[in-house]
Specification:
The chain has 157 residues and is an alpha+beta fold. It has four helices and seven strands, in the order βααβββαβαββ.
């Protein structure tokens, strides 16, 4: 079941960020800091969701509006417990994010990921969900680590 994240989900979110393999240690720390800002109300636009199975948090997503654009949102973070990947949970989190964006009048949802070979699965996942590969920014994260941006129209669906 997908639901809004609660402050009590912090430990599970931290564990998913750390175990996801998506971030260097300082990146996982930023995920936690961002979650804390949202939980304490200092970032009211941030939308954190979790997906639970048997009461356990097994997936998490975080999205927010682009501050300098009209109706553009970003899915900043998506992680599913490694033992439950390829079970549809990630797709459920993305679908819930899309609904949240539409409910808030959003027009566009962007998702960024790494261009490194180890992220082939993530890029294929977003393509399967109907996202268009919109941009590649060379050496964005580090030398040899491109930023790959996926785009989807939320207003026309």
């Amino acid at each position: 079941m997908v639901r809004a994240a609660l402050a009590t989900d912090r430990e599970a979110v931290v564990a998913l960020a750390a175990s996801s393999g998506l971030f260097p240690p300082e990146g996982a720390e930023e995920v936690v800091a961002t979650f804390d800002r949202s939980a304490n109300g200092s970032d009211p636009d941030a939308l954190w969701s979790v997906i639970t199975t048997g009461g356990d948090v097994v997936g998490v997503s975080y999205l927010g509006p682009e501050q300098m654009a009209n109706g553009t949102w970003n899915l900043f973070f998506l992680a599913v417990d490694s033992e439950r990947r390829n079970s549809g949970l990630g797709g459920s989190l993305v679908a819930a994010a899309e609904i949240a964006v539409r409910d808030r009048g959003g027009r566009v949802l962007l998702i960024e990921t790494s261009g490194q070979d180890g992220f082939d699965r993530q890029r294929a996942f977003y393509a399967r969900l109907g996202y268009t590969l919109e941009a590649r920014i060379r050496d964005y994260y580090d030398h040899g680590d491109d930023k790959v941006v996926f785009w989807k129209d939320m207003a026309g669906e």
